[in-house]
Fold this protein.
Amino acid sequence: MPEQDQAPAVALPPVGPAPGAGLRADLRRTAPGVVALDAASDHLLKVHVGAPVRGSCRHHRFLYTRGDVDLFPEGTSDVWEEEGPSTSLILRLSPALLRRAAGDLGLDPDRAGLAPRHHFRDPQIEHIAGALDAERRAGHPSGRLYAEGLGLALAVHLLSRYPASIGLPVGLSVPQVRRVTAYIEGHLDQDLSLARLAGVAGVSPSHFKTVFRRAVGLPVHAYVVQRRVHRAEALLLRGELPASQVALEAGFAHQSHLARWMRRLLGETPAAVARRARSG
């Protein structure tokens, strides 16, 4: 940071919010002198793309060359001094896209964050910045899907390399596992949702998917289907209900759905299970 008796800072020209795709690139030029970056609601990456320029802050002196990167997480502000004119590409990444990337990585989006980092090199960030700049200069011909794909790739990379207060998901406790599995058993005939089961466990849906599999050994959907098949088998062995009714009682949409999963998991059809019950 500069000394207090220096000239007033010239704010880094603001960029607009990240668009619907979650990622925006803007070219920004600043004059020599003190430069201030105001806190933003998005995560900002400043990639130097102009001629080399020397600068300083309270802690050290530096030389910006093409490709040097500064990472400013949402809500971060900063101020420094540059000895010459400077040209940078500002990448603006929305928190929503970072949360989506956290979910894809099996991390809790509510705990996902980035650590500030200054004056570093990262070939992948530089590559994405170059692709976005080329798209910007061409008038955005590839559209929103292209920007969203680049944004998601960038968010995944940032969370993998520069995370803050985020780590491997904390597992489910024994009481949580018991609570969720008991709820599943008691509601097999209903349309169970990931959000509802995560609510029973008291965690976010994206976090729940990872920690449930770690605790039980199966993905949520596979576990529920397995329990439904075993419920159907038990009902068929009782011999009190027709197969069509058994399918509904076990939570399958129709009898053919039950038959497909029963063949896959048990190696026999509902009719074969019913015959086994009669012969026993």
